[in-house]
Amino acid sequence: MNVRDSEFVTGVLLGSGFQKASSEDKADVIIFNSCSVRKHAEDRLFSNISELKNLKKKKPGLIIGLMGCTAQAYKEKAIGRAPIIDFVCGPGNVHEIPAIIKKVAKSHRAIVATDKVDSPRPELFPKFRIEGLLAYVSISEGCNNYCSYCIVPYVRGRERSRDTTDIIKEVKDLASRGFKEIMLLGQNVNSYKYGFIQLLEKLNNVEGIEKIRFMTSHPKDVSRELFEAMHDLEKIDKRLHLPVQSGSDRILKLMNRGYTKDHYRKLVSMYKKLVPGGEITTDIIVGFPRETERDFKDTVRLVEKTQFDGAYIFKYSPRPPARSCKLKDDVPPEEKQRRLAVILDIQREMSRKKRRCV
Ligand code: SF4
Predict the structure, then answer these.
(1) How far is the CA of 342 from the centre of ligand 1 (A)?
(2) Is the CB of residue 313 less than 8 Å from the CB of residue 343?
(3) Whose CA is nearest to atom 2 of ligand 1?
(4) Domain definitions of the chain by residue range
């Protein structure tokens, strides 16, 4: 999603007469696009921004901007943390970036634009795309799920689905420009308001497009119909990314995920039956507040039984204002690290065995 946002902003800027600089020290404007899903990424971001201090001293007219989820979460506090920032722009305000840059250049004052967190943005323009065969197509933005650890609903707003006709028009245009593969993007593609399966059926008929992928799916919203569509529609990629997050029902409830481990397991066996040859990957968080050894073992068992083809495993970190911040972050860092290593080892071994079997 961030790649698509960067592409979108590049297009907006090129359309307003800006040009791409060949290197950082030749640029008049440097914009950082940011992710705030994990604290580690945020810390790295601010350290990368601070590394520009010397360049800014040498070139006082240099404008440094921050966009993306961290911009929305921090607002003016981002400037407090990194005073060399000239503007902070949330995901809903990105189309304003050319005007913001012009204002900063004129007034030499910092600007914070984060008021449009819930607004849809014009997605049919600009046409700029990173060259290649794969193009990202956003089908919805924001999220209504409020998983307790997640900052997305606060920084990307409530879920807004794009019109099906706009999406089809965009995909046809991409096909006419030589793109062969599209990746449909949404925080929860399965809750696409105008029918996700119907959208897949329509896109499957777009001439020139050979493969359609999508992410991310939510276990409470995927269904037998989706798996049948993945089986029947020849252009739909058979791989499924289905984040489980934990194998403990107690922790899933604290995470506000809206399903149990049994429901998740049933979905996986249904998928494996209906989509033969498919591959399933997942996300897991270890060390969520109040996660006991017993909860953790439930996750280990789920990982062993499910036989994922791949897993992204993360250590929990509180992301204010997400609701889990009200719970004490009570799993010590070294224990989080141990749990992460245990699951990583199991997953690596499973992936190795699977590769050997292929
Ligand atoms: S589904 Fe949950 S984890 Fe995913 S973006 Fe929405 S709130 Fe965050």
Answers:
(1) 25
(2) yes
(3) 147
(4) 2-113, 129-237, 267-358
- Options 1.10.3720.10, 3.30.420.40, 3.30.750.210, 3.40.50.300; CATH for 129-237 is 3.30.750.210
pLDDT of residue 254: 98
Q: Tell me, rounded to whole angstroms, the distance of Cα 291 from its chain centroid.
A: 25
Model pTM?
0.92
What does the buried/exposed string (b/e) look like for 261-284 if buried means 16 or more CB atoms within 10 Å of the residue's CB?
A: beebeebbebbbebbeebebbbeb
Percent of the chain at pLDDT > 70 equals: 98
Distance 186 CA to ligand 1 centre (A): 10
Ligand 1: distance of its center to the CA of 143 in Å? 6
The reply to whether domains 2-113 and 267-358 share a CATH topology is no
- Are 252 and 246 a contacting pair, CB within 8 Å? yes
Give per-residue pLDDT as tens, 317-331.
999 999 999 999 999
Atom in ligand 1 nearest the alpha carbon of residue 188: 1
Structural fold of domain 2-113 = Rossmann fold (3.40.50)
Probe target for ligand 1 pocket from 188, 216, 242, with the most ligand atoms within 8 Å of CB:
188
